[in-house]
Write a structure and sequence with these properties.
single chain, about 110 residues, mainly alpha, 2 domains, 3-stranded antiparallel beta sheet, 4 helices, about 60% helix, about 10% strand, rod-shaped
Length: about 110
């Protein structure tokens, strides 16, 4: 680096938690809740200071991917529950195949 070259501060790429919250339009409690659940932005602790080092675009992209995968998981779980419920209702029906076979057997043994 030469004398005339401007100094680019690395700190400008990171934000304090308060600055990040202001940019995202959320409160500190939301930030800490996101961090506890593993959904918060990547941070770096330097002594007693915490800086958010993940860019907004990167964090938003990661959240979109997480939401897509969790939505797919929820949809799969709903489908399984729906099929299970349908199966239980079918078995409970008097027209279920297992119950018809018993009726047909009884008819043939009587005749």
């Amino acid at each position: 680096m030469t004398k005339n070259e401007p100094v680019v501060e690395e700190a400008s790429a990171s934000l304090t938690i308060k600055e990040w919250c202001q940019q995202e339009g959320c409160c500190l409690a939301t930030f800490h809740k996101l961090t506890r659940t593993g959904r918060g932005p990547k941070t770096l602790r330097i002594g007693r200071f915490v800086r958010v080092i993940e860019s907004k675009e990167s964090w938003h992209r990661r959240m979109a991917e997480m939401n897509a995968t969790s939505a797919a998981r929820r949809q799969k779980q709903r489908r399984i529950e729906m099929l299970s419920r349908a199966g239980k209702l079918a078995v409970a029906s008097p027209r279920h195949v297992s119950k018809r076979q018993g009726i047909e057997r009884a008819k043939t043994t009587r005749a």
